[in-house]
Amino acid sequence: MDLGLKGKRALVCASSKGLGLGCARALAEAGVALVMNARGAEALEAAAADIRSDFGVDVTTVACDVTTADGQAQVLEAAGDIDILVTNAGGPPPGMWSDWDREDFIAALDANMLTPIALMKAVLPRMMERGWGRVVNITSQSVRAPIGVLGLSNAARTGLTGYVAGTSRQVAHAGVTINNLLPGIHATDRAISLDKGVTEAQGITMEEAKAQREASIPARRYGTKEEFGAACAFLCSQHAGFIVGQNILLDGGGTNITM
Ligand code: NAP
After folding, report:
1. Which pLDDT value is given to residue 28?
2. Do 208 and 240 sit in the same domain of this protein?
3. Does any domain span residue 218?
4. Residue 240 sits in a domain of what CATH number?
5. In this predicted model, what pLDDT tens digit does every residue of 245-256 receive, in sequence order?
6. What is the pTM for the complete model shown?
7. Would you say the C-alpha torsion 164, 36, 150, 122 has a positive or negative sign?
8. Bridge partner list, 86
9. Is 88 a pocket residue for ligand 1 (Cβ < 6 Å)?
10. Which of 22, 184, 247, 252 could form a disulfide with 229 if both were Cys (CB 3.0 to 4.6 A apart)?
11. Domain count of the chain?
């Protein structure tokens, strides 16, 4: 299917690895020029070089922490007028409700709620003026079915979800869509670190932790960054203009709900 994205321009945050990289690669494959971002310059440059050589699109890199005001200013300056924004950042650490203080919540809100909101606020006016735009926020299955040890993530991401529910409906008339992609467990560094937490809590091996988690997923496997990226590229495509304000689970059936 031709996604109709050739010649468009996207900012994909937190995209040197994992799900962000999956989105960047799928957009590049559709002919989209990219601004890519991550804190670590080495992995970012390597990912960008692969994309240039695999897909022949322009890629600009911005090595910075996108959850800071300075980082946001840097990525926005490099991005200029973009057609597509994919927001993403690392997730907050797991823990117990009794561990977290105000500062922990502020950090989680900054990273996983206020950063995507600030980026949207910056790019939406020009997208609306030009009559076309796509925003995809990478959130988590935890907004549909909260995960106990991820209380900081649950709190921050449901805040973003509420914001998107209202804002997406205020901008849709101008040809701009905002949707959230909700990953269940995917085979990335984040999954490795979550599995490591299980090995420590339960005294089991990494293989056992992975097998235990896979057994709880109807698809009996972890998702891949490639299939996640393909879903993102479709949401950004010309065919997805009527998909507005949705929270789309990519979780192998792991979230046991009807709607
Ligand atoms: P990942 O494999 O650890 O990759 C994270 C990427 O984001 C890396 O490129 C990392 O590069 C970059 N990054 C992290 N913090 C950043 C920051 N502050 N500023 C700029 N770049 C940053 O993670 P992932 O699995 O792709 O997860 C992406 C998001 O989805 C996370 O919020 C995660 O919590 C959520 N999620 C993931 C899963 C899963 O199973 N994988 C499930 C549910 C939700 P640097 O470290 O160099 O900055």
Report:
1. 98
2. no
3. yes
4. 3.40.50.720
5. 999 999 999 999
6. 0.97
7. negative
8. 12, 136
9. yes
10. 22
11. 2
